[in-house]
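Supplementary Methods S3. Complex input for the iron/sulfur cluster-bound model.
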Amino acid sequence: MWESSRVQFSIIGKFRNGRLIYRVPPRTPAYGYIAFGVIDRGTNVLQVRPTTICPQNCIFCSVDAGLSSRNRWAEFIADLEPIVRGVKEAVSIKGCYVEALIDTIGDVLTYPYLVELVKSLKGISGVKSVALETHGLLLSKRLVDRLHEAGLDRVNLSLETLNSNKAKLLYGTPAYSVEKVIEVCEYLVRETSIDLHVTPLWLPGINDEDVEQVLEWALRIGAGKKWPPVTVQKFIKHKYGRGRGLREVSWSDFWRFIEFLERKLGVRLKWSMEEWGMTYTRRVEGPIKLGDVVEIVVTSRGWLRGEYLGVYGDKCLVAISPGKLKVKIGGSYLARVKSVKDTLYIVELLREVK
Ligand code: SF4
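Predicted complex, serialized as structure tokens:
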């Protein structure tokens, strides 16, 4: 019989500002937590999250990742096993082809087993495509070659400017070389079958013209071999994100800007789900419902300061809001489920189980 107490998260290091780095071991449930594992939102695109680490420090980061994070107190690097198991489980439930989209709350290129992950995902019968999202700081021709060999289908590149100094400012690190990212992406499009989708985030008043230049560059180099070549993302302020001082526009102003760009550049920026190959599917069923009282074991800190992470048996991960209780890592608690969204769960502790 499986025992949740056997799942032990070991601390493998410390990141900046005292953040603990945990290794997520094999046999950990794949579903339930936003920071790592697999997330199903009821479509044929599964979000796959193997790591939370990021080498950048973007001024607009919606998940407060990277070098100077203030709201995080833990980072996670997951073993391949839970991720691959979670995707296999979803494929068998959905009964259709899926895309595995590696879209972390950090930058996936930091994941030490990325090539193996892509290869393992591509090896699952029922996984039609594997894509990843990145800002590209760690891209290299060598890595592109290895990802190509492993079967990667697409890179979604978030690039906000082609200007070298501006990129260093926006990404909060002098290590970011926009010239290198451009060179490697051009290589990727030219020399491999991997597709490139370029998706700048529009920061009103900061990169209006840069967005145009990024889109023109992407089209010029041949992004969009099989999927839409370009889209633009809207900047939205998030509770735990950075960029509180940046300007956020309304959705109507955003769409006006998109239509202006479409007319000016003669490019399409709006794409339907069908054009992305996306469909609604059966969902991975959750093992817990809102209001349930369950016994959980605390495995570690959670990613956000003050939050913990736990497991409900071998069934799912849960984010733990401790309330007034003092939390012991490894302790068992009764907890009430206070939020269920897609395959993500938040519980509130009621009392310790001795
Ligand atoms: S926006 Fe992406 S690349 Fe930038 S700090 Fe956040 S997670 Fe890292």
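Residues 24 and 135 are 24 Å apart (CA to CA). The mean pLDDT is 95.
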